[in-house]
């Protein structure tokens, strides 16, 4: 069996009015995310992790923000496209592990819905998807409440 690991990271600053979308779930928050798409940085990090594990580039290569067709797109659709690209190359997702780094946006009340939506986009069972959260204890730009970030690791096998 050919095992592959991929890592993805995304960060966005807050801007405009809420909500914030994470893993396809709309979270009521007084500020939104500055982004070309829906700003779902969980989905963006997962996309890069999948593409990296399959060694087929990154999210900017496949879905450039300069291309108007990707403006306001639902980012979970991009996850589904990345999964399809990896599957076309013979890869199957074993698991996904995501950490959201946010000082103010609370993940816990939305964790189950986020895992469910992400598992659906990834075409895997709920038990193959983990979503965790942490703060920076008020350190740096995330700690100052200027934005948030997400990191994702996926394991794929051929």
Top-tier CATH class: Alpha Beta
Tell me the series of helices and strands, N- to C-terminal: EEEHHHEHEHE
CATH topology: 60s Ribosomal Protein L30, Chain: A
CATH homologous superfamily caption? 2-C-methyl-D-erythritol 2,4-cyclodiphosphate synthase
Mean pLDDT: 95
Task: Classify the oligomer.
Answer: single chain
Major β-sheet annotation: 4 strands, mixed
H/I helix tally: 5
Could you give the distance between the termini? Answer: 6 Å
Helix content: 25-40%
Taking strands numbered 1, 2, ... along the chain, how are they ordered across the largest sheet?
1-6-4-5
Radius of gyration: 15 Å
DSSP strand count: 6
What fraction of the residues are assigned to beta strands by DSSP?
25-35%
Would you kindly provide a written description of the structure presented here, covering whatever features stand out?
The protein has one domain (about 5-155): 2-C-methyl-D-erythritol 2,4-cyclodiphosphate synthase (60s Ribosomal Protein L30, Chain: A), CATH 3.30.1330. The protein is built from five helices and six strands; from the N terminus they run E-E-E-H-H-H-E-H-E-H-E. It has helices at about 40-55, 60, 75-90, 110-120, 140-145; strands spanning about 5-15, 20, 25, 90-100, 130-135, 145-155. The strands form two sheets. It has a four-stranded mixed sheet. A hairpin with a 2-residue loop joins strand 2 and strand 3. Helix 1 packs parallel to helix 3 and helix 3 (about 75-90) packs parallel to helix 4. The longest helix has 14 residues, at about 75-90.
């Amino acid at each position: 069996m050919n095992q592959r690991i991929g890592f993805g990271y995304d960060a966005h600053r807050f801007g405009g009015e809420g909500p914030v979308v994470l893993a396809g779930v709309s979270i009521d928050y007084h500020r939104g995310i500055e982004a070309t798409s829906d700003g779902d940085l969980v989905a963006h990090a997962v996309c890069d992790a999948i593409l990296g594990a399959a060694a087929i580039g990154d999210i900017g290569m496949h879905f450039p923000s300069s291309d108007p067709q990707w403006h306001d797109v639902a980012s979970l659709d991009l996850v589904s496209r990345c999964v399809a690209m990896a599957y076309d190359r013979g890869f199957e997702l074993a698991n996904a592990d995501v950490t959201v780094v946010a000082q103010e946006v609370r993940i816990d009340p939305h964790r189950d819905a986020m895992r469910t939506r992400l598992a659906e986009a990834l075409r895997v069972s709920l038990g193959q998807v983990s979503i965790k959260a942490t703060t920076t204890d008020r350190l740096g730009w995330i700690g100052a409440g200027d934005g948030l970030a997400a990191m994702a690791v996926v394991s794929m096998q051929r």
